[in-house]
Write a structure and sequence with these properties.
The radius of gyration is 12 Å and the shape is flat. The chain is 73% helix and 0% strand. The model has no long low-confidence stretch (mean pLDDT 85). Helix 2 packs antiparallel against helix 3 and helix 3 packs antiparallel against helix 4. By secondary structure, the chain is mostly helical.
Length: 71
């Protein structure tokens, strides 16, 4: 909740740090994917599209979905 509040208040660095802490404690794939989804939204909101794509790809890998990379 704290991470989402920071995100909504545009405290992106704090939100990212808290999301990382949550991810450290997440046990299920579902919970980990949920954090990845929030990180994607966070990076899109902060106009950091490269990180948004990286977190999105990482979240999809948790679901055994591998997207091809562009060369």
């Amino acid at each position: 909740l704290s991470a989402e509040a920071n995100y909504l208040l545009f405290n992106f660095d704090d939100a990212s740090r808290i999301f990382d802490q949550i991810l450290d404690y997440a046990k299920s794939v579902r919970d980990k994917v949920a954090v990845h989804k929030l990180k994607v939204k966070l990076y899109i909101s902060s106009v950091n599209y490269k990180e948004a794509v990286n977190w999105g790809r990482s979240g999809l890998k948790l679901l055994n979905i591998n997207l091809p990379t562009r060369h």
